[in-house]
Amino acid sequence: MRGSICNPCSRPLASSAGPGLLALDLKSSLDDLIPTWSEEQTATLLREWGAYYDLGKQILLEKSPSNLVRYPFLRHVFPEARFLFILRHPACVALATRKLSRATVPELLLHCYVGYRRLVDAAPLENALVLRYEDIVGDQRAWFDRVFALAGVRPAPLEETISDHNKGYLDEWAANYGQEAEFVQRAFPEMIRFFAAVGYSLEPPFVSPDFRRNTSFRRAGARSARNERSSRSNIPNRPVHDREGNAYPLRANIDRLEGRFISDLISSRP
């Protein structure tokens, strides 16, 4: 179920930012609600979500995309919950999101980067598993066994095979988006190094088996933010608009996000 979309209680919790903008909205994490969140609010949330669940099931799933940037909040509200985060190649994410967003492809790559960085900022992750889509489709039995272990249930037969939908997007990227790849590699070296740390490249071969899990995942990225800040002069300081016409000033948001989610992380490296 996607709780942030379909049930009344969570509507005030949903960011007004649409696809390709959510991670750039600093309020989307809901961290500011944690200090005053009450057990009564949790009970109300569960009661309203219950209308969409089969409460006789052992496991209930909530799969809103916004959960990527809401781990601390959800962990506070549901301390017994288990969390599964699935990363995917940023070019595939950007091209898939492009159908639903007015943002440009470089902006969508940046959005993907900021979303992943915000997950890194929430580390250490407890009762959580971070996987890559590419690894899951490559060895479904092994990775689903880890998911079953996280959920605390016995492994079950896999009734369906997950198809790899990346190839079409990566072929399209290689054929049509060379200029975008060159631009973001020049303008956002921190982003490129971060993607490399989780095994992604904007050039062939696009996916590396080297995914630095555990403590290394928290350190993914570059050592200095100065180079990226200086290269930002190439970014037009124009707003990105969502489908309802709300404006999000891209460069200003990036500057704010860097201070909160990137610089502090880099400066705290051991």
Strand content: 5-15%
Content-based structural category: mainly alpha
As laid out across the biggest beta sheet, the strand order is 1-2
The best one-word shape is globular
For the biggest sheet, the summary is: 2 strands, parallel
The arrangement of helices and strands along the chain is HHHEHHEHHHHHHHEEH
Question: What is the terminal-to-terminal distance?
Answer: 40 Å
How many alpha or pi helices?
Answer: 13
Ranges with pLDDT <50 over ≥5 residues?
Answer: 5-9, 214-237, 251-270
Kindly give the count of domains. Answer: 1
Number of DSSP strand runs: 4
Q: Determine the mean pLDDT.
A: 78
Helicity range of the residues?
Answer: 40-55%
Rg over CA atoms: 19 Å
Index terms:
two-stranded antiparallel sheet, 13 helices, 270 residues, two-stranded parallel sheet, mainly alpha, globular, disordered C terminus, single chain, 4 strands
Summarize the topology.
Elements: H1 3-6, H2 39-49, H3 71-77, E1 83-87, H4 90-97, H5 105-121, E2 128-132, H6 133-138, H7 140-151, H8 166-176, H9 178-187, H10 189-197, H11 215-218, H12 226-231, E3 239-241, E4 247-249, H13 250-267
Helix pairs in contact: 4-5, 4-8, 5-13
Structure description:
The strands form two sheets. Strands 1-2 form a two-stranded parallel sheet. The chain has a two-stranded antiparallel ribbon with strand order 3-4. Helix content is 46%, strand content 6%. By secondary structure, the chain is mainly alpha-helical. The chain has one domain (3-267). It contains 13 helices and four strands. The termini are far apart.
